[in-house]
Structure formats: C-alpha cells, structure tokens
Here is the input.
Amino acid sequence: LPGGLSIIAPPELNIPVDDPELPSTGRRLAYARYLTNGNHPLVARVLVNRIWMHHFGSALV
Here is the structure.
C-alpha cells in the first residue's frame, strides 16, 4: 500500500568477538571489575535492595 508501513531488515553484521587484531586497552574489563568488586560502595546496597525486592515485591530504593 502506498504510504503504509514497511519492515526494513537491518544489515547482517559479522563482527568477530575475539578478534586478536582489534585493539583493546582493557578499560571496559577494568571498569566491570571495579563495579563488581566487593569494595565498591554500592555493591552491598544493591544486593540488599535486590533481595528485599525479591522477598517483599517492592524495592527499598
């Protein structure tokens, strides 16, 4: 139909995940380790909030 909506498929991208030729500084991994480290101040708060939400249905924060 003229003027109707049509679905456009996105192009297929074949990007290898573990390509040794792609440069990496390791910043993303370092940031992920920092966020999930037990010394990060938000880890305990987020865990308690998730457990509370699981048991009582609504989060504290």
